[in-house]
Hints:
- By secondary structure, the protein is α/β, with parallel strands linked by helices.
- Helix content is about 30%, strand content about 25%.
- The chain has a single domain (about 1-230), classed as 3-Layer(aba) Sandwich (Rossmann fold).
- The protein is globular and about 50 Å long.
Amino acid sequence: MLDLKLEKKELPFAMAEEIKNLRTGITFSGDDIKTVMFTSCAANEGKSTVSIETVRSFAELGKKAIFIDCDLRKSILKHKIEEGSIKNGLTHYLTGQCGLDDIIYRHNPGREDVEFDIIPAGPVSSSPTELLASEKFTNMVKKLRSEYDMVIIDTPPLASVVDASIISACTDGSVIVVEAGNMNYKIIQKVRNRLKSSGSRILGVVLNKVDKSKKSYGYYKYGKEYEYSYGYGK
């Protein structure tokens, strides 16, 4: 297994606590919840950052956790790598160019962080929907579910493409990341309805980039301007 080291930014106290709240919400959604998909309505809502911090949070509890980058269109994971390089990714595996073991990397940063595994997206695919809808992808998720305590899957924004809806069908639940004050309610409803029509169990919503200086959200301010907030079961 090859090593990768992802960047690690020290989160403000309140943000770190909200990630823990998100982890707790997922944990108490049921003991059958082991594969969780994260999606959003649009790009740049912070979905990938939230999902990476969530898998890191589960690893802090000693859980065997893995992060799967399923954004085969515009992955940002490569921009978060500090050390190491990606030789093979998910697109290589789904197109039969390598085995599953060849695409699992260990985030092995040393004392300053925790260990968890990573499957990077690999090169951009010309047919991502077909690859993610394949039996090979479904079987991969089932296999990883049996081997890990928690599988966190990062997907493209659902309002733009249908990839997340396809992926959600083979997961135990989904979480929607929404940027506060920057997303139309009807678009959020559209994303929710797409997930429901695919049979996905929606675990909750992460309201991201909350400006806590504005009292309209009704949250306490912890001394930092932007925070995460987890809406469990909404």
